[in-house]
Amino acid sequence: MKKIVWLLIAIVMVVSLLIGACAAPAPAPAPAPAPAPAPKLEPIELQIAVWNSLPTVIETQQAPGWDMINRIEKKSNGLIKFDFVGGSEVVPLMEQPVALGVGSIFDVLMTSGAFMKGVIPEAGVMDVTNMSAKEMRETGIHDLLNEAFHREGNMHLIMRMESGNWIEANLVYLNKVIDKPEDLKGMVMRASGGMRPLLEAFGATVVYHPAPEIYTAMERGLIDGFAYPLHPQFFNYGLEEVTKYYVSPGFLQQSCGIWFNLDAWNSLPKQYQDWINEAIAEIEADWADKTVPLYEEYLKMFIEGGMQEIKLSPDAGLRLLKASYELTWEKILDESPELGGKMKRIIEENVKDYPTLQ
After folding, report:
1. Partner of 205 at 20 to 30 A CA spacing, among 45, 76, 100, 115?
2. Taking Cα atoms as reference points, which of 177, 184, 259, 188 lies closest to residue 218?
């Protein structure tokens, strides 16, 4: 009997082993999914316009912008290309900001914030700060400006080109000697944009002539003088030939920059935006002091052309400067009390003196 029991046990064990050997093997773990291939980077071409296509302006005042563009093309190994469409001969100067926002003619615009103010009132903030581009980013001014540019103009500021130095300013040019800004009373002056309120505040009658017509107006005595930025376009029009004096200190800052159409910017792959931002950071560092010698050269050309400086006394110069900044802020805050006020507080916390009073 015991033998039979042990035999049955042995049979059961053998059968169990056979069944185990024939059972389906345990499934192998599923392989990890392969990473998604990186999107292929396709070449793109961006159309760029400028406010002035004269070679001397491109080679001097616009030099930081064109340097940035060359670096972007190099960093991207040619995947980003900029196609130059021209200046105000393609789209009239004051219509360029609207054209950029629409994006049907060009994607990128190199221009002055002064021409943006008709569309974006907050752009006037670029006139009233001597912060460098780097300082504007660090204090949040750059981002706050873009709040306005995005919302009101469908555009995106990528870089301010000026260094914020006092010499990058606007000047009053005359054929009569003055001792104080109040002596402008009764004079007929040519001005545009943000310069008009300043001259009117000191009693001048302000008229407008396009820049190429200033020469004729001065030559014929139709105007006593004009307000105009310190930049090479002055010499392209030969204005040193019909102008005897320039007044210092200069007032307000020139506010040239580079803007993208916002839709064009947002459509760029991140890698493309990174290349652009890397180039901007390099330009802001490399050009921080390079623009000043250019403007010093312009002043030297004034003297060589026979012009003389009218240097206002400290008190008279301060009255000119205070009026220029206060009138500009007044207009900004009237049209943008909240956002404009926020930027004014930041600037006042970081800039203690009027930018051009050195």
Report:
1. 115
2. 188
- Which ranges of 202-248 would DSSP assign to H, the alpha helix? 214-219, 233-236
* CA end-to-end distance (rounded Å), the chain: 120
Identify the band that residue 357 occupies on the pLDDT scale cut at 50, 70 and 90: very low
Give the model's pLDDT for residue 85: 95
Q: 115: Cβ–Cβ under 8 A, 6 or more apart, which residues?
A: 51, 93, 94, 96, 97, 193
The radius of gyration of the chain from alpha carbons, rounded to an integer in Å, stands at 32
The structure tokens listed for 51 are 């406010």
Residue from 276, 261, 357, 327 nearest 71 by CA: 276
pTM of the full structure: 0.84
Strand partners, 91: none
Residue by residue, DSSP assigns 296-336 as HHHHHHHHHTT-EEEE--HHHHHHHHHHHHHHHHHHHHHH-
- Residue 243 DSSP label: -
What is the DSSP code (8-state) at residue 162?
-
Three-state secondary-structure class, residue 261: strand
Work out the percent of the chain whose per-residue pLDDT is above 90. Answer: 58
The SS3 call for residue 276 is helix
For residue 247, the cross-strand partners are: 172, 310
| Domains of the chain with bracketed CATH | 44-165+255-292 (3.40.190.170), 169-253+294-350 (3.40.190.170)
Paired tokens of 194: 């943000």
Task: Give φ, ψ of 82 to 5 degrees.
Answer: -110, 125
Q: How many CA atoms lie within 13 A of 218 on its CB side?
A: 24
pLDDT of 7 strictly over 50: no
Q: Cβ(48)–Cβ(109) under 8 Å?
A: yes
By mean pLDDT, which of 1-5, 157-161, 319-323 is the weakest?
1-5
Tell me the CB-side half-sphere exposure of residue 42, using CA atoms within 13 A: 6
Question: What tens digit of pLDDT does each residue of 297-354 get?
Answer: 888 888 888 999 999 999 999 999 999 999 999 999 999 999 999 999 999 888 756 5
